[in-house]
Amino acid sequence: MFVKEAGKRTGPLLVFLHGGGVSGWMWNQQLEYFNHYHILIPDLPGHGQSREENVFSIRDTAEELIKWIKPENSDKKVVVVGFSLGAQIVVEMLHQEPDLVDYAMVNSALVRPNPILHSLISPMIKSTSFLIKNRTFARLQSKELYINEGNFETYFQESKKMRTETLIQVLQENMTYTLPGNFSQAKAEILVTVGEKEKGIMRKSAEDLVQAHPASNGIIFPQVGHGIPLANPDLFNRTLDAWVNKQPLPEELRLL
């Protein structure tokens, strides 16, 4: 995997994991705000500058990221933040290595599998893959994901280059991921978030995560769907900063 490194190498370790269909650039609005941290932002397998890795699984990606983080953490505080697919990987990391992470922010993670939809993904993607190369369709998709004009061209070009089989794997992994049985054993303090306008299954998944771990809290970002880091980076940054430093969270937020 390609990984971007930024910030202050002697600072606490902060790892950002992007969602499916985008890449590490989705965290550009976090770089300056958290520049006192040692930041690592990978492009997940099949995405961005890691597109040549054409086999994707949540389990294997989590395992590889754990191998990266272990030599870096030593005495450092370790904060891992994931959005959507990246959030599922965070959950899997907490499952595989319960003692590794100090703070985990899990944004919009689906943990209620849909086996029926899983079986439809391959034929559906194969029959509509031509749309990925259509600029008009990409613009519609980008609005749903809160991708601004400055990032649109990067999003569009990366989407065109993503292999159809990789996209199928990513979606199948996303749709079938299940909350691990030992999730409650993770030593991390966990903040689970969901957008107010997200689908009901996302709200239920967030509730499942909060109920499954004794050191977890859940919040709702107001007036936003699936994409809070891009939709309102200021609120997102203030929330992450306050939570990690045990300060009061922004008043705009609601408890889950």
From TrEMBL:
GO molecular function ontology, one term from the record: hydrolase activity
Pfam family, one: Abhydrolase_6
AB hydrolase-1 domain boundaries: 14-238
Transmembrane feature ranges: none
Keyword list, A-Z: Hydrolase
Top-rank lineage group of the source organism: Bacteria
Record-given protein name: Hydrolase
Native source organism of the sequence: Lederbergia ruris
